[in-house]
TrEMBL record:
Residues 48-270 form the Aminoglycoside phosphotransferase domain. It comes from the Bacteria. InterPro entries: Aminoglycoside_PTrfase, Kinase-like_dom_sf, Pseudomonas-type_ThrB. Belongs to the pseudomonas-type ThrB family. It comes from Paenibacillus gallinarum. This is Phosphotransferase. Pfam families: APH.
Length: 336
């Protein structure tokens, strides 16, 4: 799970923000919207801005990293358009004056970026402690609706999105091994190594078919769901790609408490039944998602203190997984 922008130092972060602000202003000139203000949101896989326009309209402007493949960006927008046609409310792309969904934008010194302008989905994120049983179950229902809507998705001939599986996991695990020292001890790394090997062995055995594999959001965690008038809506499809539905679920429940995970699964299976004995596979994907998350944040010094605090819980999960003790839906005892 690679970041799109360098944020390892304050200098790099400020330089990224300066350049992408320039690219954002350049990109906006290529759209037929009467905008009146631009508000920075965050830097992550892409840099995002909220654009306020006339008549109270809002848009989301994304500046993609310089190395981003425009074909992958277009393919993301192709899939979200297909999901919109199935009745899913989500951000959809706005075409520029040339009719393109992807806009080339430049900084003052000529550096090139790609930009996309999306419709704004109204709603508020809920913190983990703010959820009710109903909102958690609705999150599960939302994911099931996305999986159901994707079942007959037929991509175009030049469609290009990543596949989340053994190769991406091995890449992210290798990155974590090289950069773990700021928050994972060498002794604890042995636990991670055994768990990663066990996940890899499972991934080698899996086969895909339309009921358990297809286009997925791949990042539908609590921060990428907004609630409006009690209903959840998905945002930020920048990591979408091909993968197992259980992997998609694991990414979503990674940040939930065990009782909330029970509710999420209850909501999911109201809409779409999971076949067979799926919990051991889901727990393997959970470990996969955990390792990927730590790999993603390993270079970001701003995250290290929080990651250090998480390690006792992470180690308890890894030990349970290695001991074949089910851990997803029950609180674990954490060593002091």
């Amino acid at each position: 799970m690679a970041k799109g922008f360098q944020m390892d130092t304050e200098i790099n972060r400020n330089d990224t923000l300066k350049q992408t602000k320039q690219a954002a202003l350049h990109a906006l000139q290529k759209y037929e919207i009467n905008w009146n203000s631009i508000h920075f949101i965050q830097i992550s896989e892409h840099v995002t801005f909220r654009i306020a326009a006339d008549q109270g309209e809002s848009f989301l402007l994304r500046i993609h990293s310089a190395g981003k493949n425009p074909k992958e960006i277009s393919s993301e927008l192709e899939w979200t358009s297909a999901m919109k046609s199935k009745g899913i409310t989500l951000p959809v792309a706005v075409r520029n004056r040339e009719g393109s969904l992807v806009t080339t934008a430049y900084t003052d010194d000529g550096k090139q970026y790609y930009a996309t302008l999306l419709t704004w989905v109204e709603g508020e994120r809920l913190e983990k402690g703010e959820h009710t049983e109903e909102t958690i179950q609705k999150m599960g229902e939302l994911m099931a609706h996305l999986h159901k809507a994707s079942t007959d998705f037929s991509p175009s001939t030049d469609f290009s999105r990543p596949s989340w599986g053994i190769h991406t996991f091995e890449r992210d695990w290798a990155h974590l091994q090289l950069n773990h020292g700021h928050f994972i001890s060498n002794e604890a790394l042995e636990l991670y190594s055994m768990a990663a090997e066990k996940v890899t062995e499972l991934l080698k055995t899996l086969t895909s078919h339309e009921h358990d594999f297809g286009m997925i959001h791949a990042d539908l965690h609590n921060g990428n769901i907004v609630f409006f008038e009690g209903e959840p809506y998905p945002i930020d499809f920048g990591r979408c790609g091909f993968g197992y539905h259980l992997y998609d679920i694991a990414q979503s429940i990674l940040g939930l408490f065990p009782p909330q995970r029970v509710l999420f699964m209850k909501g999911y299976e109201r809409i779409r039944q999971l076949h067979g004995e799926y919990i051991p596979k889901l727990e393997a994907f959970f470990i996969m998602a955990l390792i990927e998350a730590y790999s993603f944040h390993a270079d970001d010094s701003a995250e290290w203190d929080g990651l250090i605090e998480e390690q006792p819980y992470a180690e308890a999960i890894l030990k349970a997984y290695l001991n074949d003790s089910s851990f997803l839906f029950v609180p674990l005892e954490i060593s002091s």
